[in-house]
# Entry
Amino acid sequence: MSNQIYDIIIIGAGPIGIACAIEAKKNNLTYLVIEKGCLVNSLYNYPINMTFFSTSEKLEIGEMPFVTTNPKPKRAEALEYYRRVHNKFNINSQLFETVLSCKKHKGIFTVITSKKEYQAKNVIVSTGFYDCPISLNIPGENLPKVSHYYNDPHYYANQHVIVVGASNSSIDAALETYRKGAKVTLVIRSNEISPRVKYWVKPDIENRIAEGEIDVYYHSNLMEIQEESATIKTPNGIITIPNDFVLALTGYKPNFKLLESFGIELDYKNAMIPSYNPNTMESNIPNMYLAGVVCGGLNTHQWFIENSRIHANLIIQNIISNDLS
Ligand SMILES: Cc1cc2nc3c(=O)[nH]c(=O)nc-3n(C[C@H](O)[C@H](O)[C@H](O)COP(=O)(O)OP(=O)(O)OC[C@H]3O[C@@H](n4cnc5c(N)ncnc54)[C@H](O)[C@@H]3O)c2cc1C
# Structure
């Protein structure tokens, strides 16, 4: 452990963690960002062809222009942008180092990682939600052919693919794999494609379904996954269809265990929303702040980069005013 006590330790180098670091730097506070994976790890793990629903200026941080030739940037452009911004501000970050615990004693936090121990007066938790997929909890879910993440459509060429879910991720995966020659079946719990699906994508999937090019089972649930097939409970009975891969894109959730181990209270009656003051983003633990999409608990549609990048300013201003008082 070094003797340095940082003003702030920021957990997670996603867009919002980096935005917090930029604000800290601009205000001459000492800080360190600790990230378990690569820089903007969640974005790195998004599907290779993913297009953001936001226009590029709404994804900007640190007042750095995000220049793209199309209004909606692609994953690769976002990786390039956030890396350039991170490096331009010479952000002090440790990558591939996981925060395991964080305890406060006599006004100082000790943050223990997979590599070291650090101390800080303030901690910002900006850990997102993309690390913890929501499980189906059905037999066969642990088979290697089942994944909660989708990357490259080519992999699924000429295979029987089941895509579970009706959100943007599921619909992108269904359309892309279909266009690489997969035989795609969508299994959807509700009676429709999510109204949140990108407005320029929704007609495409609806037409593919209407033309019989992509199969869909509404009001249905995957019951069991076998080596070469899968069993679906549909309104017309239980059916078993041939299957090579399952993309269970059923959403993600923040790492609640980690948050609770820090002492952050979760609202069990309201989507496990972590406790924080919306004016300052300070959690129930004084000097521990929440930033970015982690704030939504299970409501992962509540916060995006667009509307949570303001957390950086709220938090740093609060830290400065606490220091002055
Ligand atoms: C497919 C998809 C498309 C999206 N499209 C848009 C869009 O168009 N516009 C928009 O505004 N938002 C969009 N979002 C939402 C938002 O962009 C992302 O969720 C964004 O990554 C949130 O930023 P963040 O910094 O809060 O969290 P994240 O980017 O998830 O960053 C959290 C970081 O914390 C790290 N971390 C977690 N635990 C630890 C630990 N214990 N120790 C160290 N590091 C840790 C993670 O590795 C990660 O890098 C999209 C989300 C998804 C999933």
About this structure: Residues 5-131+252-324 form a domain with the FAD/NAD(P)-binding domain fold (CATH 3.50.50.60). The chain has two domains: 5-131+252-324, 135-248. The two ends are 29 Å apart (CA to CA). Residues 11-17, 34-37, 41-43, 46, 50, 52-54, 98-99, 126-128, 130-131, 169, 255, 258, 292-293, 304-306, 308 surround flavin-adenine dinucleotide (CB under 6 Å).
